[in-house]
Amino acid sequence: MKYWLGVVSLAHVEIGVAGGFCQFNHGKRAPLDRMSLGDRFVYYSAKETIRGGHAIQSFTAIGEVLMGDVYQVDYKGFKPFRRDIHYFPSSHAMIRPLLGELDFTRGKEKTWGQVLRRGFFEISEMDFKLISHSMKAELT
């Protein structure tokens, strides 16, 4: 099992949670191909919408990859790739209190935002557990 972090606006996270799917990096296929059945991931949202809005700077959803292949949809002329996901009940958790504890931000407290610009990357099991605990996620 691997653990992943995806950076997605809160508005897009909410659409994915409601639809039971995930997508990353503006609908690109490559990140989804790296994921396998049973892998777990967390969404981080810097802002409310892709165009800005209020700063969120929180982990906003957490889930597990379900059986099935990557698939493409036609969404109002946009054709993103998606994967089916089981989302766990959770709450949003601010990233700032965790900056000194997370492997991917420790020692980078002043430049932590640069790490997240990758949009999608693997995280350690310890980081996933710390984030899921902060989100009060009901993992099953």
Overall description:
- The model has no long low-confidence stretch (mean pLDDT 95).
- Strands 1, 2, 3, 4, 5, 6, 7 and 8 form an 8-stranded mixed β-sheet that branches.
- The chain is built from 4 helices and 8 strands.
- The radius of gyration is 14 Å and the shape is globular.
- The chain is α+β, with helices and mostly antiparallel strands and 140 residues long.
- The chain has a single domain (3-134), classed as ph1033 like fold (Roll), CATH 3.10.590.
- Helices cover 21% and strands 33% of the residues.
Radius of gyration: 14 Å
The oligomeric state is: single chain
Uncertain spans: none
Q: What is the strand content?
A: 25-35%
Helix content: 10-25%
CATH class: Alpha Beta
CATH architecture term: Roll
What is the H level of CATH, i.e. the homologous superfamily?
A: ph1033 like domains
The geometry reads as: globular
CATH topology: ph1033 like fold
Query: What class, by secondary structure content?
Result: alpha+beta
The secondary-structure element order is EHEHEEEEEHEH
The number of distinct structural domains comes to: 1
